[in-house]
Design a protein that fits this description.
Elements: E1 5-13, H1 28-31, E2 36-39, E3 42-44, E4 54-55, E5 65-72, E6 75-85, E7 92-94, E8 97-98, H2 108-111, H3 114-120, E9 122-123, H4 128-132, E10 134-136, E11 142-145, E12 148-150, E13 155-157, E14 159-164, E15 180-181, E16 184-185, E17 193-201, E18 234-235, E19 238-239, E20 251-257, E21 262-266
Parallel strand pairs: 3-5, 4-9
Antiparallel strand pairs: 1-14, 1-17, 2-11, 2-16, 3-15, 5-6, 6-14, 7-8, 7-9, 10-11, 12-13, 17-20, 18-19, 20-21
Amino acid sequence: EGLKAVSALWFRFGTFSQTRPPPDFRLLDEMLGKPIVMRGLLFSASLGLAAGQQAGTMQPEVHPQMSMEDCTEGVCRREQTSVVIDANWRWVNKEGQNCYMNDNTWDPATCSDGKECAKTCGIDGADYQATYGITTNSDKDGVVLNFVTRGPYSSNFGSRLYVMDTEDTYKIFKLKNREFTFDVDVSNLRCGLNGAVYFVEMDKRGDWDGERNTAGAKYGTGYCDAQCPHDVKWQNGVANVDGQHGMCCFEMDIWEANRMATVFTPH
């Protein structure tokens, strides 16, 4: 199981320098219906009762499908993969009642303690298109990501996706002495916005252990990065109710860009 590195397709809202002023929010409505398109990667060379974090039951989880190609000596083989949205974006609820509130705080009635919260509340499946603005593209070899999606209950901004190998495991990319390519349409990605493709050192099962975490990679759990984010809602099957714990791991940013600039960064 020692392999950890997986691919995260992350479309986020931000700037390349923390000293820059925030982007003009008047542009958000102009961006509705103007998605970023990320096409499939091309790889060369061979390549019981829940006691902890659990899946919800209100919405089925159906991963958007996309294909990639794995090439060796000029011969390419098409692989069918899928993507999953990170657990942080998902509805956390107890039998349809919010456990994580609209003001970005945990409901003390169900989540005063991280372990009890994980036993009581589940992370639900995602309606990828209606809630998050995520669809498979017309060629079935990539995804279309809308930044702003107005839903019946809330508005969603951005997304973070992982490539899946199976329904329950993330795809492990072994890239030593290999290369890979991908295409992104950034024509609608204005200044102040950031699209990203990067690798992070996540467990391929999303820290699923069948006990504390029974949701796992199928529901986008187990995120970490080099910034040690403290806003990850679930950590090793326990709700991060006090926000005191960061999730740290190695990270390699392959591509961070908008239509005006691009960078890559090892961490």
